[in-house]
Design a protein that fits this description.
632 residues, five-stranded parallel beta sheet, Rossmann fold, Aminopeptidase, 3 domains, alpha/beta, HAD-IIIC family phosphatase, 26 helices
């Protein structure tokens, strides 16, 4: 595919007047596009009615982004629009006035995300003119840092996210100081200023994230164009802005809870050098020499990702017994068989077998990231399985493998929880459950001996990220697909009329962790289930029945006369279409908006699930609120 092919394809869709209705197709086209093609496509997408695109594809997030900064930020609009589309996000990106960041941050934000692009002028414009000292810079840095911290607290009070950037110090500024000792002190002052900015993104202020421009500038070539800086007040080069837009799109994807879960690795030419079928395990290259060290670096990076909750899997064209032997016994291999949740090894085309990874471990194929050195294999997967993220690596140059693996940030998350870190162990434990299940001829007997306990508990501040994560990542058991960020979850927890009821599950093999959450709202004598989400990995055990029964019992015990609930059908949540009717709810009249509404009169509760132990720690209810405008 030529470099212009993705842009030509997007133009053809634009010329047909179908950009809004074919947004997911545009995302697939841009998946392999370079930064410049994505930016040019973004210029076309920026003119689209983004609300129309979201109405056509409600499963795609609609994200409002405001750009502001200490210079001109409008060149970021097409770049970020294209990069968000590439991540299957409908982004409506608008730019504020040049240099208007102080005013933009001086009030609670109304956009979902505000990106504030800082450059050195934010400090140097505060200095005495025309001459200045390092002490002046130090004072200005302190003043600006305090202002940004205060503004960040105010701006994020609106519930949106604020993304700040650090500000690199160019030689233009540093080289004006002729005393080399003072020049070194200027560097120290500047690094402290940027370090304090980065601290704002470590959780010091909720909702604030910081992108470090120094490592981006180090990899983009020229990061500054003096002509653009002087004539247009654009502080950074096109190449840096393009790289920044891609990084910010990854961040927005993470904020929307859309990271991938599983890294699927090819073996020959990817995880190790050489071909197992030709040379045997002893002839593989992963120890001595630069090529072997390149593969070992790749293995180290894969292991590092796995330690933070990324599921590791293998999809290889090889004999399964030979693969198993190498993964278990090769002395130079840094990731072992037990580090992989599943290994698919046979001689079929990988476009036909990579999906088996998702099937075996019970996740959606859109949670996979597939890495291979064969352009034929990656091309077919990209063409026929567009929901799977694909990373091409070059067998002739393994030194680039690790960089390519990390370049797209597929596994970036707003925060990594203990639930995430324990994920791989839980999926490996699932194999032990499968072996245990094989010993029973009856599903009922198996479930009884599994000794499963369901606990409904009152969440605390430490549970906020996991609850938001569940609403954002869960597709199959998500009744309304209501996606909530951490601010929305905190607001629900603070609302006395809302019951937030997460559940954790454990059995004889271990703890599944927090696998679901419900949001219930009291309005007069009615309890409304705003949403119900649960990880699909525990479906089929009756957990949803026991959970729903407990919620209905809670409503009845505290004076409610009815419980109402919605199901908004999507292509992914069809398996829960009959959840409410199956548990005694009756259908309410259809309003023609595609939402199915149900009511339970609480006269007869669903039966108890005998093979489950239910522990309820639900809090006492708050007084019912006065009736508000009818939702149904």
């Amino acid at each position: 595919m030529s470099a212009d092919a993705p842009l030509d394809a997007v133009r053809a869709i634009r010329d047909a007047g179908e950009l809004a209705t074919r947004w997911p197709e545009v995302a697939a086209i841009l998946a392999a596009a370079d930064v410049e093609s994505t930016a040019r496509a973004g210029a076309l997408l920026a003119a689209v009615d983004h609300h129309e695109a979201h109405r056509a594809h409600p499963e795609l997030p609609l994200v409002e982004v405001l750009l502001t900064g200490s210079g001109t930020v409008s060149p970021l609009v097409p770049r970020l629009t294209g990069e968000l589309a590439r991540q299957q996000i409908v982004g409506r990106v608008t730019a504020g006035d040049p240099g208007g960041y102080a005013l933009a941050l001086a009030e609670p934000g109304t956009a979902d995300v505000t990106l504030c692009l800082l450059d050195a002028s934010a400090v140097f414009d505060r200095l005495p003119q025309p001459t200045w000292t390092v002490d002046d810079v130090s004072a200005a840095c302190d003043e600006l840092g305090a202002q940004l911290a205060e503004s960040a607290r105010l701006h994020t009070a609106g519930g949106g996210a604020l993304v700040l950037t650090t500000a690199p110090l160019w030689p233009l500024w540093a080289d004006q100081i002729l005393d080399l000792r003072e020049r070194a002190r200027l560097g120290a002052v500047w690094r402290r200023f940027n370090a304090e900015l980065l601290e704002l993104g470590t959780g010091a202020i909720e909702g604030v994230h910081v992108v470090d421009l120094d490592p981006i500038a180090a990899t983009t070539g020229p990061a500054r164009d003096p002509r653009l800086e002087i004539y247009a007040h654009v502080a950074y080069s096109d190449t840096l802005l393009g790289a920044l837009a891609r990084r910010v799109a990854h961040l927005v994807r993470a904020l929307r809870g859309r990271p991938r879960k599983c890294l699927v690795l090819d073996l020959d030419g990817t995880l190790w050098g050489g071909t197992l079928a030709e040379s045997g395990g002893a002839g593989l290259d992963m120890a001595e020499g630069f090529r072997g060290e390149s593969h070992r670096r790749f293995q180290r990076v894969a292991a590092q990702l796995g330690s933070q909750g990324v599921l590791l899997a293998v999809c290889s064209k090889n004999d399964p017994a030979e693969v198993d032997e190498v993964l278990r016994d090769h002395p130079d291999l840094l990731v072992r068989r037990d580090d992989f949740v599943t290994v698919v090894a046979d001689w079929a085309p990988k476009v036909d077998t990579v999906g088996q990874v998702a099937e075996r471990i019970g996740i959606g194929s859109d949670s996979l990231v597939f890495v291979d050195d064969s352009a034929t294999e990656t091309g077919l997967v990209r063409l026929k399985r567009p929901e799977i993220a694909v990373i091409d690596v070059n067998a002739r140059e393994p030194a680039t493998h690790a960089d390519r693996l990390l370049a797209e940030g597929w596994f970036d998350s707003a925060a990594i929880t203990d639930e995430d870190r324990k994920r791989a162990g839980r999926y490996r434990t699932e194999g032990r459950r499968a072996e245990f299940r094989a010993g029973f001829s009856s599903l009922t007997d198996y479930l009884k001996e599994l000794d499963t306990t369901l606990t409904l508990f009152a969440p605390g501040p430490g549970d906020v990220h996991r609850l938001a994560q569940l609403t954002q990542r869960t597709n199959q058991f998500n009744l309304t697909t209501l996606r909530m960020d951490e601010a929305a979850v905190r607001a629900a927890l603070a609302d006395p009329a809302v019951l937030v009821s997460p559940v954790r599950v454990g059995d004889r093999f271990g703890d599944h962790g927090v696998i679901g959450t419900a949001f219930l709202r009291r309005t007069g004598p009615r309890v409304e289930i705003d949403n119900l989400v649960m990880s699909c990995r525990v479906l089929g055990r009756g957990i949803e029945s026991a959970w729903l029964r407990e919620l209905l019992h809670w409503a009845a015990a505290h004076g409610a006369t009815e419980v109402t609930a919605d199901h908004r059908p999507t292509p992914r949540n069809g398996r829960v279409a009959t959840l409410y009717p199956d548990h005694g709810f009756t259908a309410l009249p259809d309003r023609g908006d595609g939402v199915h509404r149900y009511r339970h009169d609480l006269t007869t509760l669903p039966p108890a699930v005998e093979h489950l132990t239910v522990v309820s720690e639900l809090p006492a209810p708050a007084p019912a609120t006065a009736p508000t405008e009818e939702k149904r």
